Amino acid sequence: MRSEFIPLEVLAKKENSIRAKKYTSETEFTWLTLNKGEQKSLNFDTYSDQRQEQTLQLSQLGNEEGVKYTFFANVAIKAEGYTQLAGFHENATLTDGIYQFIEPEEKGNSIFGQDYTKTFQNTDGSYQQISFSVQLKQAELIASLDDFAVFEVTYHFIPQTSQDTANWPELEKELVDRKTYKVFRGVAEAPVPEFSAGDVLFGLSPLYSSVQLADGSSFKIINAPITVDSETSGHFSIKNPLSGEESTYDITFSNLGDTLEFTIGIETRNVRYVKLYDNRIATVDDFYSSKKQSSYSYANLAQADTTYNATQEDYMKTFYVNDLNLLNNNKHAVIEPHDNGTAIVYSGGIFGPNGRWQFEQDNSMSFVLPCSPNQAISNCINNSERINVINYKLFKKEKAGYWFLRSHSNQNKNADGAIVQSVTQSIQFLKLCDVVCIYKNTSR
User: Fold this and answer.
1) Which of 49, 232, 309, 311 has its CB surrounded by the most CB atoms within 10 Å?
2) ω into residue 370 within 30 of 0, thus cis?
3) Average model confidence (pLDDT) for the chain?
4) Which of 213, 230, 282, 283 is nearest to 425 (CA)?
5) Which run of H or E residues covers position 312?
6) Percent of the chain surpassing pLDDT 90
7) Which residue among 144, 166, 188 closes a domain?
8) What is the widest separation between alpha-carbon atoms in the chain?
9) Which domain holds residue 253?
10) Which residues pair with 393 in a beta bridge?
11) Same-domain status, 118 and 229
């Protein structure tokens, strides 16, 4: 058997002592003991999750009373065997040492996955199943040390339909305040790094941008590598495995001291550089810097040594994607190549192969789906109106999983009957399943 897919905070609480893992690198950690209430001040303005991800959510926090701050993270919600990760982006005001959420949102099934559902007996003897949404109320800093901060978060369940608790004797017990805990790590400012021709950059990605390529297809930039050509210019390179064509797209950039300005097409953006808790360097889109207390903010991985010489054996494992929406619906996105050339790709609970794979000359692996076991990969690509080719190039191995350069080529037919293609390039961290990987689609 293997551990839970849902990555709960590694945190143990006993009386007033709190034990947590303090990561010193991406894979190494020491145990840290904090005493509740012993230190209750923040040493950083910006905090992030302590998770291995290509993109981390940032919270803007502080110690000043009456000031509005922003929490942007996920917390673990539990109740009678029910477990979910509830994402929240809440404005909060620090009042008497408590961060009170301002007009907190209800976290319902439509966005955050499975609802907490329970059957209750009415005073008339009938039974009814009632579903609840999660609402976060407040957060209190209960322990801190150096860049480490632990918050006690108060939340409660709200019936999704109006209910009179007098008619449901057990209902009131479900509406009480509950506690969960959130571990944050401080994020430090870092200087814009110097770079020269031949260097590879990450983290320069206008959100939601889509570059049109010469063959009529599109290239979506999430966190694709940029090759530096000079002090002021660089380029993206992208190969579409569906058409076989390779394209480049030029960018320009300028070091402004505190920020790096870059232009892709007609879009110009600035990024700041930060150092994460495990010494990784990341970028923060400066588009948000003037609205820190009311806008989402992300840190994107900005450094990666892509020189690892992978072998086919490196890929012959079972990986899963740490995706919040999938986890919260008890589905697991799995990438699993089989020895016979078939593969399970982003199964989401589908048992059995739905694609095929091949090892490429550049030591990457391509997955093609849908592609049945009795079909050749070339036939699937050339004779299908709807096809996906997902290429993974391994560049770093960790104990918990591997870092990949991911290129996803998609071909589809639009409403007019025309065949359209797109390519999305990004970094992705895939978790390794330990011993036996169980993936399933269950419902409550």
Assistant:
1) 49
2) yes
3) 82
4) 213
5) helix 312-315
6) 31
7) 188
8) 78
9) 200-301
10) 405
11) no
